[in-house]
Structure formats: structure tokens, C-alpha cells
Amino acid sequence: MKHANSFQDLEVYQLARRLAQEIFEASKTFSSAEMYSLTDQIRRLSRSVGAQIAEAWGKRRYEKHFVSKLTDADGEQMETQHWIEVASDCLYITPQQQEQWLELCASIGRRLHGMTEKADRFCSVTDYWSPITGQKMGHRSQGQQTPAESNEELEEV
């Protein structure tokens, strides 16, 4: 199985990035009257999902903090769903885009839920990879689990 050495390795993070990029590209065509309302909201929220996942990864040493950040990410994806529906109501996106993005949000939500349910498997790791040096840091107690797995099985319940 492939192990996640950073938050970028997590499939849920990759999906969140894809969603944010697709929303950004589509929002370029929204009415200029929406620049400081719908456009700003949907861009910020969709981008926040991945940011919260990254922050959760950085807080894996403390399971409650890790779960809290994953919960925040889930809340952001739910709020993104609301703004996707508003964009659809305003006819800024197609019904196909709405359906695709809402399904992507649901998939992200399922994976986040799976991670919170299995938080101990992510947080039991005392070794971590430094994003600055790219090297393994910390230590592992005897008998501890291996680094968090990035496969779908671990991210989903």
C-alpha cells in the first residue's frame, strides 16, 4: 500500500484541489456584479477545504486538533455545496457542472468522515516528513503503526 508522507499524497486533498480549480475556472465567467459576493465566496470556500486538510495534517500529533480541522474542512465543503447551488440558481453553471461538483463534494465529505473515524491511524505516527528539508523527522515508538495510508480504504468508512 502507498503511504502518505504529506497531505499532498492524500486522495481527499487532491480531490479538494481539483474541485477548487474547476470552480475557479468556471467562476471567471460569472457576472462582474458577483465579484465581491458569489464569486468571492465560492472561490474562498472551495479553496479552504484543501487548506483545512493541510492544516489537519500538520496537527496529527494531537488527535483532537486533527479531527477538529477535518471537521472544519467538512463544514467548508458543505458550505461550498450551498454556493454551488446558488451559482446554479443564477444560471452561472450548467446542471452538469452542479451535479459533478456536488458529487465531488459528497466524495470529499465521505473521505473526511472516514479519516475522522480512523483518526487514531493517522495520529499514531510520531515520524513525519519535514516539508522544509524533505527528510524524516521525529521517532516511532516500538509497536506503533506505519505512516497514514493514502488509499481510499483509509480515507473512507
Task: Write a compact overview of the structure shown.
The protein is built from six helices and two strands, in the order αααααββα. With 157 residues, the protein is mainly α.
Please characterize this protein's 3D structure.
There is one protein chain. The chain is an all-alpha fold and 157 residues long. It has one domain (7-155): Up-down Bundle (de novo design (two linked rop proteins)). It is 62% helix and 3% strand. It is built from 6 helices and 2 strands. The chain has helices spanning 11-27, 38-58, 63-89, 95-117, 119-123, 152-155, and strands at 128-129, 136-137. β1 and β2 (136-137) form a beta hairpin. α1 packs antiparallel against α4 and α3 (63-89) packs antiparallel against α4. The model is unreliable at 139-147 (pLDDT under 50).
Throw out a few tags for this protein.
about 160 residues, mainly alpha, de novo design (two linked rop proteins), two-stranded antiparallel sheet, about 5% strand
